[in-house]
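Before going further, learn to read the protein records used in this course. The integers have meaning only within a learned vocabulary of local backbone shapes. The record below shows the convention in full.
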Amino acid sequence: MRLIKWLTIAILVGAIITGGFIFLPKHKAVLSNEQLIEIQAVEWLKAVVAKDWPATYQFTSPGYRSGTSEAQHERRMGLREVKWQGGELLNVTCEVEVCTAEFRVVYMVSRPMRGIPEFEGFQILEKLWINLDGQWWLSNSN
């Protein structure tokens, strides 16, 4: 059931990113900040797992982009030793201009030490999203 909810929300993400807000005809309500971040965070996570670095760059803040070109971002992300294999969004909490998305991420590290070809584990992590002029951005790319 939760997967169906996320798939339904993910379908709306393109319209939200390009149009800002979506009005739901049945309820005549605007999506909340939590719902907007849920959609963006899931799309960002899917891009990271797929190693779609240009897509992940599109979520980064203008501040990050001012100091990091898309090519630099792609190179940095591609060279990371830790590769994300999958994950899920656990929770989103928002204040006025800042939201925190909590993820459970499954990762793989190749050759972490001699004699061990790879190591797989999971980690709970938080990513900060900030609102600048009505648009939500990932505050950092790491």
About this structure: DSSP finds five helices and six strands in the chain. The radius of gyration is 16 Å. The helical segments are 2-19, 33-49, 53-57, 62-67, 70-78.
